[in-house]
Amino acid sequence: MNYKALKTVIGAALAAFTFTSAAAAAPAPIDTEAQLDVMAASGVIQEEINTLYHTWDGILKSGMSKRSHYTFYAAVTDLDHNGRLELLISRHFLNKDPLYYAGDGISEEQKKGLQYLCNNYPSEVYGAAYEISADGSTLEPYAINNANTQFPDLTRLHIRGKKKDGVYVYDVDTQRMPRNESWTSATDRYGIVCDAQIVWAEVDLGVGTSAHTEGTAGIYGDQVEPFYTSMQLLYLNKDVDPYGSEAEAFLRNRLDSGRRVNFVDWQALDANARTALASSWYGWSYDDQD
């Protein structure tokens, strides 16, 4: 999909009245169990987990093991409704600096709040995507079309697609807490960013960023409260008040995105990839009503 088409898709995804809900019937009956067998036997899961191990080994050698953590998730979907299952991979590089610098001089409630912040606002997000081949015999990688935009946090991919020009488009919210080397002690607020994105599966996995928001997160006991100070609607190339009417209208259009895709972690995949993948797939819906 070229840039002009990408802008068209992003613009259309934000104009709720131009979209019809993805209530289309599921594909003709397909042998999902056989596809799950192929997916589990492909070796891709273990290769991806090995990538996790190698990355973590590099973190250990860097001397940052107390301040960092690396997590890995996978989900099984059918984003384009073509009956060929997809494997989505999401890797999170967690920044534990807030906990590290806070030390032991804070309450247990504050520690819980900081832990939640670190776990839910990764420093960096990476990932990959695959699809079962047309003949059903193997698992093939998707090219990722995310030029000039943040790789999406696929664990925050919402399950209800919206159809435009034959393409199902899905909302995803990618929130991060970039590492700030100036942090040397506990602080009241931590810098965060959030990208409102869309994802679609066609010949590749397409990614578009609709809005970019920046602000800070404060810790109040065990509660994390984000406060955004800037917001840019990228499809309009316009800065808006994060709490103004334009931002409110933009966010309202994303409220019907449904629940999130069901992801499983690397421990479950390492223990029994077939069982873990099946549990993710059984949470998929072609017309989510939650």
- Write the element-wise H/E pattern from the N-terminal end onward: HEHHEEHHEEEEEEEEEHEHH
- The number of E-state strands comes to 13
Assign an overall shape.
globular
Number of helices: 8
User: Over the alpha carbons, how many angstroms does the gyration radius reach?
Assistant: 20 Å
DSSP strand content: 25-35%
The share of residues in helices is: 25-40%
Explain this structure.
Helix 2 packs across helix 8 (273-281). The protein is of the alpha+beta class. Strands 1, 6, 7, 8, 9, 10, 11 and 12 form an eight-stranded mixed beta sheet that branches. It has a five-stranded antiparallel beta sheet with strand order 5-4-3-2-13, sandwiched between helices. Helices cover 28% and strands 32% of the residues. The model is unreliable at 1-23 (pLDDT under 50). The two termini are 31 Å apart. The protein has one domain (3-281). 33% of the residues are buried.
Task: Give the SSE map.
Blueprint (H helix, E strand, L loop, with lengths): L2 H12 L5 E2 L10 H10 L2 H18 L6 E10 L8 E10 L1 H6 L5 H13 L3 E9 L6 E3 L2 E2 L16 E3 L2 E10 L12 E13 L3 E16 L2 E11 L4 E3 L4 H8 L11 E2 H6 L1 H9 L9
Parallel strand pairs: 6-10
Antiparallel strand pairs: 1-7, 2-3, 2-13, 3-4, 4-5, 7-8, 8-9, 9-10, 10-11, 11-12
Q: What is shown here, in short?
A:
With 290 residues, the protein is of the alpha+beta class.
List keywords for this structure.
290 residues, alpha+beta, eight-stranded mixed sheet, five-stranded antiparallel sheet, 8 helices, globular, disordered N terminus
